[in-house]
Write a structure and sequence with these properties.
3-stranded antiparallel β-sheet; about 15% strand; 13 helices; disordered C terminus; about 375 residues; elongated
């Protein structure tokens, strides 16, 4: 009877204590969260309950499994102890990572709600993300090292490795030169404020938004949902355009190639009407001017503004589409034309003035026509 009750008491007691502690911790965190609505810390800490229960249950079993006094346990005492120790180390690392992530996310959430500058919020978000990844990598590395050191064979291996640490360090440094370069470039990007999550960038001729930044690579999502994954060292050694740097407000241009007879003043009035009906225009500024000319056309430039890169694209497309449609419907003569036949010459004095017949000038074709007389046939 004792062989049955003792295992039930040890295992059942460990489970009951684990569930009871988990319930009490969750109850306290819920009460704290209801009292402090200004911070999400207590609500996020509730996500740490599963690793906490695993740590507690494993620790109780590790401390009391000798009390089972079963033949199976006595015969495999070292193996069971080793497994419980490994589970305890892994669960502890899981708990530490979850607590660190909770504190970091809570700090970022409070900063994001109290700061109105989107650029600063994205900068802090980038730094917080990389800090969280660094903490995760460090804790995971320490946990794996601690697991390996629980094996007796690995302790002797570790002693021999320490004796040749200098040579191994040199070899590892040469072999991981590129990886280490990207690692330090990631820190430089995070704390140097070069590029942030959510920034609009132009990299290698592609326009997109920074979607993910890790310690070694950066992902840019283009407007057509493609992803460019590039090493972070690229952004520290190559020039790129960051449209969100120094503020997200932007100015955009729309160019029109039109005939010289285009009604520029009427186009200004139409541009004002188009922008007044465009929700993406932020109302800061607009203008329209003739910026260039050629023998056949003139270049008209419209300048518009918007609150970010996405809206400036929308405004430019709307202005281009509606302005061209308005010119086509109301001022078709303003659109560029290709002349395929000679112009009709005006009669009378205007014709003489254009041809230069009254002043002894030779027309461009070298021949002065005589419209008042019938052309001679050569027969007299």
């Amino acid at each position: 009877m004792e062989n049955v009750l003792r295992p039930l008491l040890v295992l059942g007691g460990s489970l009951v204590i684990t569930l009871l502690v988990g319930w009490l911790v969750d109850l306290l965190l819920r009460r704290a969260d209801s009292r402090h609505h200004e911070t999400p810390l207590w609500g996020l800490l509730r996500l740490c309950r599963p690793p906490l229960q695993v740590v507690l249950c494993t620790a109780l079993l590790r401390a009391s499994f000798d009390q089972l006094r079963l033949d199976v346990v006595r015969d495999n005492r070292d193996a069971i102890g080793q497994v419980l120790t490994l589970v305890l180390i892994g669960a502890t690392a899981w708990l530490v990572i979850r607590v660190a992530a909770t504190i970091v996310q809570s700090s970022y959430a409070r900063y994001a709600t109290s700061t109105r500058d989107p650029a600063r919020v994205r900068r802090v978000r980038t730094q917080v993300t990389l800090i969280q990844r660094v903490v995760t990598a460090v804790v995971a590395t320490i946990a794996v090292a601690a697991m390996l050191l629980t094996f007796p064979a690995m302790q002797s291996v570790g002693t021999s490795m320490l004796a040749s640490a200098g040579v191994l360090g040199i070899v590892a440094g040469v072999a991981a030169q590129s990886t280490l370069g990207n690692l330090f470039a990631g820190f430089q990007i995070a704390f140097g404020d070069m590029v942030r999550l959510g920034d609009t960038v132009v990299v290698d001729g592609e326009w997109g938004t920074v979607e993910e930044i890790t310690l070694t690579f950066l992902t840019v999502r283009t407007w057509d949902e493609r992803r460019f994954t590039m090493p972070v060292s690229y952004f520290t050694s190559n020039p790129f355009e960051n449209w969100s740097r120094g503020g997200v407000q932007m100015s955009g241009t729309v160019f029109f190639q039109l005939d010289h007879s285009a009604p520029v003043s009427a186009m200004r009035d139409k541009l004002r009407d188009i922008l007044g009906e465009c929700a993406a225009w932020d109302g800061r500024d607009w203008s329209l001017a003739v910026t260039d000319t050629s023998p056949t056309t003139m270049e008209v430039r419209a300048v518009v503004t918007a609150k970010d890169a996405d809206d400036i694209w929308t405004v430019r497309c709307a202005v281009r589409e509606q302005m061209i449609g308005w010119l086509r419907d109301h001022h078709p003569y303003a659109l560029p034309r290709v002349v395929t036949s000679p112009a009709v010459l005006p009669p009378g004095d205007h014709w003489r003035e254009l041809t230069g017949a009254d002043h002894g000038r030779t027309p461009p074709n070298g021949h002065v026509p005589t419209p008042d007389k019938a052309p001679r046939t050569g027969r007299g």
